Amino acid sequence: MANNVSTSTFQPIFQSNMPWEDLLDSRDFVKTFLSDVLETYIVKQRWYGGKSSKLKYIELAEFFKIQQSGEVYYGLILEVNFVEAFYQHYFLPIAFVTDENFAKKDRILPIQINDHKGYIIDATNLEAYRKLVFERIATAEPIDTTKVQYHKSHLFSDVQYESSRFMGLEQSNTSLVYNEKYVLKFFRRIFADKNPDYEMSRFLSEKKGYKNTPAYLGSINVVDSNNVNITIGLMQEMIPNEGDAWDYTLKELHKVFSNLEYKAINVDVLPNTELYQRLTIQDIPPQIIDWVGLNLFTQVQTLAKRTAEMHIALGSEFEETAFTPAHYNGDYEVWLKNKMLHQFQNRLNTIENNLHKLEGLALDLANEFLDKKNEIRKRFVDFNWTKLKGERIRIHGDYHLGQILVKDNDFYILDFEGEPESTIRDRKVKQPPLKDVAGLFRSFHYAIYANVFNNHKEHYKASLDTLFKASEILYRYITGLFLGTYVTETQNANLNLGYNQERIFILKYCLLEKAVYELGYELNSRPQWAVIPLKGISNIINH
Fold it and tell me: How far apart are CA 351 and CA 355, in angstroms?
């Protein structure tokens, strides 16, 4: 290994006579590495999710070698313990480099190994490491019984490594693009179980041949000292795309709201429709088509079909118990009510503490929420599984317009990790498929209001009250058309969503759950947007 570090400025924090390949067996090294050095480094990383808590200390839970023919890197599983008496696990791959021009921002520790001066860095910065990982997946054997298990899908044809790069700024994971065709996602925050994104991606792609999600190509799992399988990497095809459905929808909505003035539309005389009414394109009145145009509605139909096809695939399994449909039962009811009441109480406290930040419609709606808190709580407790005949399945769990890519007037669904606030166990609980539909409906509601908030001062002449009124009318037609298309598709495929009243009950229940969940986020980060989930809650409790 060439020694390129200038001796005049280099001050190693740690010196070792052990070779790099044995370094993690040195207690002294591990102690130095885990001390303030790593703490200082980790809290600055975008993928570190403990920023709102106080770090107490870091332990090395597991380490393993990521290697090929003499080339060795380490994978570390770090247990970050917090003062508030909980912990999180993170995956960090490390490399030793001797070139001081390398990874200046991502150096963790200056170190001298024998007479080699250099730095411990995050290995993803090193092309040699990225290449090695790609080759280990591309050449993986079907049965792998080692500690670090590489898996290659039959959908991944034999390919040579050409290039690799970071995908761009991400929050919780690190994604690498290979050959401009494949994406390897390294999970940073990890759980003592297979990651739902890995499970769902592999199931939909390999077993069900579902085409509207990136094809599963391979993975890296680690078997820890308790014999638990932990997912650290997921390889999928890269979908060339025109951006996500959130940005696409915002652009479409801007055209729709610009039409109010351009076509001199009187919002007060626009025909309205019932909430949660199942519609076809033929049911949408000409005045609404004249205002909105057909494009947005046809795209909503396509997205409804793709969502239905995803649920049909997830609900059509009868061998793999992790994916077989289940009926409602007492255990699920208890789990759901406990989860909902805990979350509801949390949001109630947040509203009471943040009321002074609200004004206008948001303040009115927040007061309505507080006045009707017992009624809302009763809605959550009203869940009675004995009256429900539909089935629960594995679902996306965090389904919104930002998780969907747009390509050639079609949609591709990504990121099956589940709800960020939930435990790994809760993310794998079988749920009503309508929970995903509710997630998307809330996302449409957000997009409509976000468009109004972003543009009303500069681009729209109508008053905010008029724009809000138009927003609610548009929301009803979009969700009605989505529901009509989705229910027809799922019924034709015999996916059991229950009878009509049951479907509306579950949809409203899930919409209320989602809006209450969103409320906490908005009140803490951007109170002026709290009006969106508050309006969603008001719609449900007054309907």
Answer: 6
Q: pLDDT by residue (tens digit) across 10-38?
A: 677 888 888 999 999 999 999 988 887 88
Taking the C-alpha atoms of residue 367 and residue 28, their distance in angstroms, rounded to an integer, is 58
The CATH class that applies to domain 129-237 reads alpha beta
Query: How far is it, in rounded angstroms, from Cα 342 to Cα 129?
Result: 44
Assess contact for 380 and 515: CB atoms under 8 A. no
The C-alpha angle 71, 77, 78, rounded to 5 degrees, equals 130
Q: Which of 237, 374, 212, 390 is nearest to 307 (CA)?
A: 212
Tokens (6 digits) for 118 = 């250099």
CATH code of the domain occupying 245-265+272-541: 3.90.1200.10
**HSE, side-chain direction, 13 A CA sphere, residue 476:** 19
Question: Closest by alpha carbon to 254, among 66, 406, 455, 58?
Answer: 455
Secondary structure element (H or E) that encloses residue 90, with its range = strand 87-97
Question: Given the structure tokens 């989930």, which residue do they identify?
Answer: 533
Give the burial class of 409: count Cβ atoms within 10 A of its Cβ; 0-12 exposed, 13-18 middle, 19 or more buried: exposed
Task: Read off the DSSP letter of residue 435.
Answer: H
Give the Cα separation of 491 and 390 in Å (integer).
12
CA–CA separation, 480 vs 503, rounded Å? 13
Angle between helices 295-314 and 464-492 (to 10 degrees): 40
| Whole-number Å distance between alpha carbons of 420 and 405 | 20
Cα–Cα dist 459/57, whole Å: 51
pLDDT per position as a tens digit, 238-286: 999 999 999 999 999 999 999 999 999 999 999 999 999 999 999 999 9
Q: Mind giving me the DSSP string for 175-238?
A: EEEETTTEEEEEESEE-SS--HHHHHHHIIIIIS---SSPPEEEEEEEE-TTS-EEEEEEEEE-
Is residue 173 within 8 Å of 72, Cβ to Cβ?
no
Q: Where are the domains of the chain?
A: 14-123, 129-237, 245-265+272-541
Q: Which amino acid is at 226?
A: N
